[in-house]
Design brief:
Two copies of one chain form a homodimer. Chain A is an alpha/beta fold. Chain A is built from 14 helices and 14 strands. In chain A, the strands form three sheets. Chain A has an eight-stranded mixed beta sheet with strand order 2-9-8-7-6-3-4-5, sandwiched between helices. The N and C termini of chain A lie far apart (49 Å).
């Protein structure tokens, strides 16, 4: 019966990361592979209090079907947060609550993309976005990013040649590289997109997890008419609730709500109420500060071990926050070969390969998450990786 | 920028029900319009206990990212339930947890349907299924149902002429009509589909809410190789959690999991754990029995009022459970006209029109939900409808 499958599902890239994570999640493995936040700081007690309060005060309502748009109070809170944190005036009516920002990608694909439409993704880019969009069979153009952001000459070329419907970006502490677009890069990027029929998506799951450096402009403030914002509670409260949102202009929000309704009627309403209650009774700023400090110290530990053990020919992309470091091995040293060596010694990470689309592959990059392992494990794991790299380098010279 | 919208989203029928519900949900309206379960019986206290237990015993895990397939324990519970209730042997590996069974429809559309593929839906049929599938731009063929189930001659014609990829059915207490397919109808239907390249979807949100009559065979027992089952906790525990599932054969479950991952990574894991805990600590059978008795008494009250007030020319479809009654007005009496009259007197229902696709419209049918109003309101509301019908009939005769 396999011939019944749609063409679109046959075109989705297999998630290589999925198979890696199956190995990496075994308990005796030092894993830098996951994209998970640290469970150490989940606000378990506060959420338990919020659950009890919601059920006691509004049980019937919190357990009933709810609106596709999402809880009004939560949408107002999100709008308020954009104002207080980023000086952005956003109407709650332009916010749709989704199952994590991942679902916003799916809904955007659904309402915007016809087969063959051009879109731009980052190179390397977030695999979940590549997967979500690929189900709508667009033509994907990847534009390289470096420590400064998107390579604007590449972007300009694609904009001119292909008139993409959307440009997907993670400008703060990007997944997989951890880098942020510079202020200048953002401003210049916007001038290229301004006035075209191209939408700019700012996906921002890590934006609040800044350890150093200055906050940069949100694309919404630079290009309000053409920007779509995605946000999420996954990295700052809990990912298990699958609570995110999309901010979109009037002409787009209604089709998104229709697509949301067709997809699953609405996002888990009980969880929306719990999160709103949690936000009423607790300081999210203090909580985010706690997470940022915790992650910053782990990042520092990993950087120190890298400096201590790794050959100088391995470079690390600059990062001021988030969860990831992006390493480039000397050309000719395969990250896949390194993975095969390291996993034998129970250390895991994600090779860069799955973050590039098509034949467009680079084989000497890799992503390390620093947030879920403790500092002893970080030191030990980095030492193992360094030994493996040195061994591969030695073999290469000999060969 | 509206020209950026995809063709598929432009083809989705507007949810007329949505606009009706906005009117119907006003507090002074007697509403028979909703598709909501009664909030009176939500197990609020038991769910609060389950929340506390999950967070106390497994907080870190329950708040972390989880697998796309869904919680293993919950999937085993569902498999066990199919065995105990319907004598069906189903592997937990063939079960995918979804955001209500609504999301299963979206995922099935995504992995099975290319533009122009033929599918069969019931006439009248569940609007949410029509919406979900329509986003994948199939050619929809509707096959009429009556008190016995699908009209098999119509089905046979469509099967032969169009080789549809799937036939979507709600064989127990269907939405909108409340009718169930007879045992004979199921057996004959299956012989038509057997051996073809057509899948049979049994959507079963109301199946456990039987008030009278005999349980009928699940299509999975009659046609195991070609049947897909959908299920949901929405009508038996709470809809707000958006917890449902799909049972699919091996060749289909993996693509569904890939589509699920691309859509939203996984279903709210905290809620999966709460429901599993609730099911461990409470008797779902007793709870379902309570709901069924409660709904049965409301149905009886509505039937009695209908007999008392309605002209004999209004017919009611036979129903042995679920949430809805389906009425046919005398030909020439428009349910839309009735709606316009009734809403002025603060009584709401859903006219049948949105449940038929295309030009295929019938204007003299309507759906009444009996589960959310109390018996006094039911009596009062039905009397208002009867008065409106009699008035329209009188005007028609005069005209």
């Amino acid at each position: 019966m396999k011939q019944l499958l749609s063409k679109r599902i046959q075109e989705v890239p297999e998630s290589f990361i999925r198979s890696i994570l199956k190995v990496a999640n075994q308990p005796d493995v030092i894993s830098f592979a996951g994209g998970l936040p640290s469970a150490e700081l989940f606000p378990i007690d506060a959420l338990e209090k919020a659950c009890a309060k919601v059920l006691k005060n509004n049980g019937k309502q919190a357990l009933q079907y709810a609106s596709s748009e999402g809880d009004d109070q939560l949408r107002r809170w999100i709008a308020g947060r954009y104002l207080s944190q980023q000086s952005l005036t956003i109407s709650p009516n332009n916010i749709l609550i989704t199952n994590g920002s991942q679902q916003a990608l799916d809904l955007l694909g659904k309402v915007l993309l016809d087969k063959g439409d051009s879109i731009v993704i980052e190179r390397p880019g977030y695999l979940g976005a590549i997967q979500a969009f690929s189900l709508y069979q667009p033509t994907m153009h990847s534009v390289s990013i470096n420590n400064q952001g998107m390579i604007l000459s590449e972007l300009e070329h694609v904009l001119t040649k292909h008139q993409p419907k959307l440009v997907y970006t993670v400008p703060n502490f990007q997944n997989p590289t951890g880098v942020s677009y510079s202020q200048q890069n953002r401003e210049q990027l916007v001038t290229l997109v301004l006035g075209s029929k191209t939408l700019l998506i700012q996906d921002d799951p890590y934006g609040e997890l800044r350890f150093s450096g200055q906050k940069k402009s949100n694309f919404m403030s630079l290009l309000p008419e053409q920007t779509i914002l995605l946000g999420s509670f996954s990295k700052v409260i809990t990912p298990s609730f699958r609570l995110g949102w999309v901010v979109a202009p009037d002409w787009l929000i209604k089709p998104l709500v229709i697509a949301k309704q067709a997809a699953d009627l609405h996002t888990n309403y009980f969880s929306q109420r719990i999160i709103f209650q949690y936000l009423q009774d607790n300081s999210i700023d203090l909580h985010i500060e706690k997470i940022s400090q915790f992650y910053a110290s782990k990042k520092a530990a990993m950087m120190q071990s890298i400096k201590q053990y790794f050959p100088a020919s391995v470079t690390v992309a600059e990062s001021e926050g988030g969860m990831f470091l992006w390493l480039t091995l000397p050309v000719g040293v395969s990250a896949m070969a390194l993975f095969d060596q390291a996993i034998k010694q129970k250390v895991a990470f994600v090779p860069g390969k799955p973050f590039y689309i098509g034949d467009d592959e680079v084989d000497n990059t890799l992503r390390l998450s620093y947030v879920t392992m403790d500092e002893v494990a970080i030191n030990k794991g980095i030492k193992v990786l360094a030994d493996c790299i040195n061994q591969i380098l030695a073999n290469t010279k000999r060969g």
